[in-house]
Amino acid sequence: MQNLLERIASAVRPLARTGRVASYIPGLADVEPSQFGIAIATLEGDIYAAGDSDQPFSIQSISKVFALTLAMRLKDDELWARVGRLPSSNQFNSLIELELEEGKPRNPFLNPGALAVSDMLSSRNTQMELAVLSLLRDLSGNAALQYDLDVARGEFACAHRNLAAAHLMKSFGNFRNPVEDVVKAYCAQCAIAASCKDLAVAALFLANGGADLRMRKVLEARQAQQVCALMMSSGTYEASGETAFSIGLPIKSGVGGGVLAVIPRFGTVCSWSPPLDEKGNSVAGLKAIELVAAELDRTVFS
Ligand code: GLN
After folding, report:
1. φ and ψ at 230, to 5 degrees?
2. What is the pLDDT of residue 75?
3. Which atom number of ligand 1 is nearest to the Cα of residue 237?
4. Ligand 1 atom closest to Cα of 186?
């Protein structure tokens, strides 16, 4: 396994040159683009890693998996009345469908859907970003995880689209709390910094029927399957169909360059390489996951 990861790291590193680091969030624009890390965590409790797998990076939209987990623990009924489960062929920050579909975001991994989730969590937590951070600390076993305040502040300062999305939802009655507060909390949630190893370990419950390795129930088994289904249909945004076709695993990406994949009943893989393709997915990170799935012959269909 170790050899496999080293080989994959060498094979995909050059691909990073074809992508571009996210620059619309000021704190992400100067990240060193040549960094690459990968980690596999298994249900047996083993961790295999290569490259910069201990280096914390901005998890961005990968945080949406953990925020969704918290929301599903609260109230499935309210959640699914407010947020759909449909894939989208628009960009993650698009507002087009939101207007046409009367303020109900298509899924919790699009920015509007994630904002509705953050709004739901804000109704029950004075600082919902802390709830997401605590869950990640707990599941990763890394109590030192933090958010990068510079990244959070930088994103909030230019969060016009996310503010617009939240206002639009509010105009349709699908947003409860003050827009600015929730968007600020959402930016902090996205600015959590964690490494490939942290994220791979934290997501193990999704590969394990909803329970972590200490057999604590994080979600019901059915709910864990549903999170995976959404990762498969919407986790890499408008590339999700292509990703399901070429990789065949539930995957969630973030514009920090992280890619988190679940291999049911086996474990998780997290890769990281900052340069992104035009849809906002890490070029080398996604390719690395594709090679892991192919080499291990582990997809949800195999
Ligand atoms: N914080 C980012 C945003 O709201 C997250 C987007 C992403 O990672 N795809 O635009």
Report:
1. -70, -35
2. 76
3. 9
4. 1
